[in-house]
# Entry
Amino acid sequence: MSGTVEVSWFGALCDDDYEQLGVVRDDLLSSWDHCGRLVRRVDELGFDNILLPSGYALGIDTVAFAAAVAPQVRNCRLLVAVRAGETWVPQLARQLATLDSILGGRLTVNIISSEMPGETLEAPARYRRTKETMDALRTLLDGRRLDVSGEFVDVHLDPPRITRGGTCPPFYFGGLSDEARDAAAHGADVYLMWPDTTDELGRTMDDVSARASALGRTVRFGYRVHVVVRDTTQEAREAAGRLISAVDEETGNAIRARSLDSQSTGVRRQAELRGAAAGDGFVEPALWTGIGRARSGCGAAVVGSPAEVLDKLMSYRELGMEAFILSGYPHIDEAERFARLVLPHIPHGPLA
# Structure
């Protein structure tokens, strides 16, 4: 592991921007104006990458948005989320190669394995589709001919001209189930993890590393977590409490149920983590699970003073994490605080 880590921020294309969770503000809803402003600001603040998530219900398309905003991003990479099976692989390869060209080689790709809108597909089949998609995409984006007759991908053709002689952008991929870990070992470059206890993170990393090694591969590790940083511990905890103060149990359940992956192994684990936390919501020092009461997916935040947040993130680096994908609320405000109070103290840069 190198001495630096990649520090990324969250693009909030999936209507996940609030001042108080569960209280909708029209000016923070996903839109070209709001999300474009967010991405440009994160780029200015010196982050290394920006995750552009995929969400059907909001209507905004991730690849189309990325193409529009890419010329405005001067330094950051873009981590563009795509759902396996949603787009015919040769067309997706052409879209991604075009994005990479616009960005001057600064594209990274987040492969998503969840069901698509309106689809019912059991996990084993979904992850078989994901493996086939990753293999086919990598072949085409490397500029090689694709000849595959698979269960989900049946394609025999040369790569489009724009991909010939190219290099496939890194694939970021997350999922906690056995099938997801196998898929990561099979085809991911960076395995993304949601918050968990330090011991459990270490066990998962060892397991995925062993699965990849058995296939003659290595996988790097990334960590997706929220942050609430303030000048003092007390101020940070007060801000965290205010963030969820408007959410009752019924509202929180409704928010979590809207996600396409609301029944996944990873989401269930986030619920277990909340259940294991102390009365104040902290499951270990600086790791607060209360935020998961009001959102699906990543369900914990690193909360504290600048020194506490820095120490916690650096402890993850010592564990073997090489990439952080952070977020906070509202996203521009928290990105500015983090960039001022913590980012200058982290040795960071894009993953080599």
